Amino acid sequence: MKVRARARFRGLRTRLRRLTDRPDLRDPILVYQMGKVGSSTVGRSLRALDLPRAIREVHLLNDLDDLEQRVRDTYPEPVETLAQIEEGRRLRKLILGHREILWHVITLVRDPVQRNVSAFFENLTEVIPDVYERRARNEISLAEIRDAFLDRYDHNAPLDWFQSQLEPVFGIDVFATQFDTATGYAIYEAEHARLLLIRLEDLTRRGEAAMCEFLGLDRLDLVTANVGREKRYHDIYQEFEARVTLPASYLARMYDSRFARQFYTDEEIDTFKQRWAKAASRP
Predict the structure, then answer these.
(1) Does any domain span residue 122?
(2) 193, containing H or E segment
(3) What is the tens place of the pLDDT at every residue in 207-216?
(4) Crossing angle for the helix pair 112-122 and 248-255, to the nearest 10 degrees
C-alpha cells in the first residue's frame, strides 16, 4: 500500500510539473465578466506589466449550447457572440479538466441599465444588421432603435450572470455575503479559484489598489481601452443617451433586482433611475 501511495504521489507531482510548464496554466489570471463592464481595460492593464503568468479573458463559460441556440434564434447575424461562445468552450474545457490549478479571477459589475445599453450598441448590427445604412438614409428612427433595445435584447444578462456563469464553474456565490459599497470591491476564496469583484464605477478610484492587493503586485497603472467615442456607434449611442426615456416598468425590473440591490446603495440606484427617466428632457 505504501508503494502504491508513493507511486500515486510521484505521478501527481509529475503531472503538476507538466501543467505548470504550460503557459496557459501557470498561476493563471482570468478576466471573466459579462460584456461591457471594463474587461478590456483590466486585461490591457495587466498585460502591460508583462507578468510571467497567463492572462485569459472570456465572457461566457456555462450553458454554452443553450446560449448558442438562443442567440441563433434571436439575432440575424450574431457573429461576435458566437465567437465568444466558442472561446468559452475552449477555456471551460481547460478549467474543468485541470482542477489542480487555482485560477485568479477578476470580474466587474456595472449599473445594469447602463451596461445593457452599452452592450446593445456594441453588438448593434447583430440585432439590426443594416442599421448604419438605414440611419444614413434616415430610414430608421431613434424610437425604432429604442424598441429594438427593449423588445429584442436579453436584459436578464447582468441580473443572472453570476448565478448562471460564475457560480456553476468556480463555486463562488457573490450574494452569500454583503458587499461593501463604500469599499467598492471584494475578494472571495474557493477551492479552485480566488475572485476579485470590482464595481466599474469604482475602477478608477480603487481598481489599481484592489488588483495589487489581489495579485500581490507592487504597482499597476490602469490603461483605458475600448473607448466608446472611437466606436462606429458613438453618435447614435450619444443621441440615445441624451434623448431616450426608458419605461418605469423596465427601470423597476432592473433596479429592484437582487443584483442591483447587492452592489449599489438606494441613493445610487435613485440616481441611475433619474438619469434614464429624464433623458428626453435633457438638451
Answers:
(1) yes
(2) strand 193-199
(3) 999 999 999 9
(4) 110
Supply 213's cell numbers: 492587493
Structural domain range at position 187: 26-281
- pLDDT tens per residue across span 27-61: 899 999 998 898 889 999 999 999 999 999 999 99
Measured CA to CA, the distance from residue 266 to residue 272 in angstroms comes to 10
Q: 58 with 89: CB under 8 angstroms?
A: no
In a domain, 6, yes or no: no
Phi and psi at 51, nearest 5°, equal -70, 150
Total domains in the chain come to 1
Eight-state DSSP code of residue 245: P
Euclidean distance between CA atoms 245 and 41, whole angstroms = 29
Answer yes or no: is 14 within a domain: no
Q: How far is CA 187 from the centre of its chain?
A: 16
DSSP string, 114-135: HHHHHHHHHTHHHHSTTHHHHH
pLDDT for the residue numbered 27? 87
Cα–Cα distance between 15 and 20 in angstroms, integer?
Answer: 9
Q: How is 217-274 classified by DSSP, letter by letter? A: -S-------S-GGGSTTHHHHHHHHHHPPPPHHHHHHHHTSHHHHHHS-HHHHHHHHH
Element (H, E) at 248: helix 248-255
Own/partner pairs, 205-208, CB within 8 angstroms, 24+ separation:
207/42
Identify the pLDDT of residue 23: 56
Residue 7 lies in a domain: no
Handedness of CA 58, 104, 181, 224 (dihedral sign): negative
Task: List pLDDT tens digits, range 102-125.
Answer: 999 999 999 999 999 999 999 999
Instruction: Quickly tell me which residue has 498561476 as its cell.
Output: 27
